[in-house]
User: Fold this.
Amino acid sequence: MFLRPDRTDFQVIAFYLGKVMFGLGLMMLLPAIIAMLVGEWNALTALVIGGSIGVIGGRLSEIKFRTRRPLSWSHGMVTVALSWLLGPVLLAVPFFLSGHFSDFLDAYFDAMSGLTTSGLSVLQDLDHLPRSMNLFRHLTHFAGGQGIVIVVLTLFAGGGAQVGTLYVGEGRDERIMPNIVRTARFIYTVALVYLLAGTFSLWLAGVVAGLQPGSSLFHAVNLFMAGFDTGGFAPQSTSIAYYHSATVELVLVVLMFAGTLSFALHYQLWRGDRRELFRNIETRTLTLTLTAMTLLAFVGLGRSGTFTDAVPLFRKGFFTVVSAHTGTGFGVNAPALFVTDWGILAPAAVVGAMALGGMASSTAGGIKAIRVGLAWKGLIKDVRRVLLPESALVVSTYHSTRRRILDDATAKAAMTLLLLYVLTYLGGAMVGMFYGTWDITETMFESVSATANVGLSVGITDASMPMVLQLTYITQMWLGRLEFMAVFALIGYVVAIVRGRT
Amino acid sequence: MSTPRDPLNARAWGQILTSLLVLLVAVVVIGQLAATAPQAQLPEDARIIELPATSSVDIVTCERRLPEVTRVQGELAPPVGRVTSTAVNDCPEHFDGHVVQFAGEVIGDVLRRDGGAWVLMNDDRYALETGPLPSHRDFGGSNSGLSVWLPDELVELVDAPGGPGVRGTVLAVSGVLHRVDPDDGGGLTVRAGRGTVLAEAVAVPNPVHRPQAIVAVLAALGAAAALAAERIVARRR
Assistant:
């Protein structure tokens, strides 16, 4: 039986939730300044309203709910789950006031998609969207990709140890350094280095592609945030096909890979330990699955006659598989072409790549390479246990920053989450099929894309989609980003409020 | 030793419900603000006069099921008249290699390369009918268009591309449609050979939304007050 939460529990949660709202409110300052500089007055007032609500809510919670009570695991999990549910409400305010969404739910959908680094969008007339609002969309990727809760709390909360629970709640279970604040600082350092190098490379590639220098900088900054944080929004409606540039695509492939690597692996590489790249179970799994999915896509595209030359196979096929596998969602063709021109096998490979996802403790979504690797090793271990004599001791190991023994509990946990992802993929596809408009291949594509926070689409996601399906995808994006556990903790909390012991 | 528990009393529930009520009121106010946004028509001279008639081809959709075999639902006929991006994306195979007519707003950037430029031409409702958002609330879905290669002599026709606050030059072009353009890494493109201007670029009126500006000023003052109040309370602690 659960203990019914008391007043101080709510106080702790409200206090930290307020800090997150305050951080998100401040985030709107940057696009607001840009709006002022370029004279986008209605966008400016929309951002000021959204930002002010965040600041007011955040400061009032600081006054009203200030507490020194430490965060327990359940507080942390519930705070994270609520932050990712209410944060998009705040972000949806400027979106909705921009005049590019027909209702608030649409704006909330895009805010959730941005924050969870999904990249699905129901925004209307993107190609005429004010620049400051376009930057704001991409900033939501950056905030969500770096982990809003950890970013805000390491900036605005003094304690490092007690926010560790929030860090795990956001789907990052690998502490790189003993102190969570130092871990967060390392994450910022990595992001900053990639920001400078990535933005410069994209700017240069954009200028070579024919963009004016100023316009190229705007595109570069936005594309960097969407690429490195494996988000998937793009400044124009045709996504990456807009640039007609192999160089832009190449730089983005590098950024997408960088974004999908775990920060623990970044740390090892940062220290000069390149061997980790070849020994790590996640890089090995990712290499294998990426190769398999790419080959499958190539065979599919070749057999169906979609692309028969090497260049289109790489620039369309490989790019799309990388975009899917890293959880980014950049597109190089119109969504409808997945259905009308890509055959059956190649889109299936894209779905497979999306479902598997990138590395744990990165900005990527999906099942994650570590779980796929551990589940596979667990399966092999069980098979060996059956085949060997009963007295034999079967030991399986894996390498993840150091050599570790695979115990049954770890393998079981990986299997459980894998199963949860698969069930969510199926559930979303079933809801889509309920409407009778799309078949299983289309609804599965979209459902996996939402749950794995990818953002590729076959065209189901648009402003005219049914409301229940829209709510389903919002839930899937939320579940997928938090990897279920924080959401289950929130459900447990609600149950405890109703049925818990006092 | 367990800490004494402090159950939720009526006052605490009242605070939670009040917070939810405030959130609801905020959403309603924001909804009202969005609904009262000023609307503006495109200037009279920006209206498109002669948009070529669309193709009579009635294609539902195509799917590649077997090698070199395309399953088509609907009627197949050679593309005659103006094609739309939606029809092309629904069955690119049918238009591959044909000379097509296409009309749309040049949008974003003109990517100049040797001998011409790549442009994106949108033929959605915002481009050809209603004009760009947010100057009105006649929502017409997402953008839709095709990538078009313009040789130098046609690039000169582009007065200004569309973007925030600008409805770009609307062109009608004819050229060969490539399902897999080898010079674009396999992209779906139209290589324009001829083109005419249907409408010049025009700035879209987007007047300041006064009620929204007033709410923004009040909200900013509220935020400043909340920041000051928090500092005062923190100092007293």
Remarks:
- The two ends of chain A are 10 Å apart (CA to CA).
